[in-house]
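Quick one, T. Sequence first:
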Amino acid sequence: MSQIVYIIIAILAFGIIVIIHELGHFFIAKLNGIMVEEFSLGMGPKLFGIKGKETQYNVRILPFGGYVKMLGEESEVDSQRSFSSKAPWRKLSVVIAGPLINIITALIIFVTISFATGVVLNSVATFNALSPSREAGVMLDDEILAVNKSKIFTYTDLEIEVQNSQGQKILLTIKRDGAKKDIYVMPVKGYILGFNPAYDDNSKPLPKIATLIDGYPAKENGLLEGDVIVGVDGITISNYDEFSKYMAKNNGESVNLEINRNGAILSFNITPVKSDSYTIGINPKYDDHPSFIEGAKYGINQSISLFKQIIGFFGTLFRGQAHMNEVGGPISLIRVTSAATEQGALPLITIIAFINLNLGIMNLLPFPALDGGQIVIFLYEIISRRKANQKLVESLNYFGYMFLMALMVFMIFKDIFFPIKF
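Structure tokens:
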């Protein structure tokens, strides 16, 4: 398929995520007897629409966002079917339904994927060469429970904690033969060529180049996306794990890669460079056929892990510690989703789950014009049993909306002129 088709699929996928969110608001509003005047997918001028029994369904020109417009949502309306006439707890149920349905959707997807692809366990399957973990006393089959006393839910949590260590010694809490044990490990940096592998339908890495990283030897020496590694230094490579284990032994020496490019075998002599990432030199166990309980547990843990990562990112963002090259807007979102689409159905579905979770959490932030801002107001009314100052609420929502629109415009320009590299 062409790049245009991938982009179209990405936009449609994002539209489905928005529809899921707005349907949460829509159905709970109907359940509470509230009249929904408009259900809109997208923002800006209307492209086309259909008039229902009482609701106008519109598709707008900008394929980002959407909204449900309810009678009496923006001002007081004297009607039993208006949003403004309903009790605070009913309003709260309508507002929280959107983000909640996104989070539930993500959870369902992650659980389903775990059965389809298998699960990565937090247990040690093998060690890389010169592994600091093995030298520190970690053994095969050890289950890693926590890093620096912080519980890990997935193997990705471990990798993140290792990177956050910045090379400082970390404390691993492991379980061995039913007993817990603490072991200190010093992370190290390995040598890499600078590419990301493609994945098969079961989300396992292949010895095939999916993307090349700017400024690294693989791209600078002429490797291309789609190249398949079939040999290294005269050793036949049949899977990515073999290549990964071989490169783990490398200390900066040149390697001779044999590449299959559209049926032709090419040879490249490349010198790896030291990675920016730290490692503790272990490879996790993988369960191809998890039980129902194991699959469900992994799916839930995956959701919790991503929840922690998203909250952690927002924390660094609000503290001013996030870099601009880590922040993307709607165009970056489409690019990432399009790249996942090229990798196949499962990577695309995984990205859809991640965006669902991200959208749900973002909308729960207590900021005016977001669902989280309204949730705070309705919680105040429920607890205090007093109605919030409507003029103040309207002013906060107006300025919050204008800020979000300005932020979206800024992020679009940022995506165009300073795009995220991945």
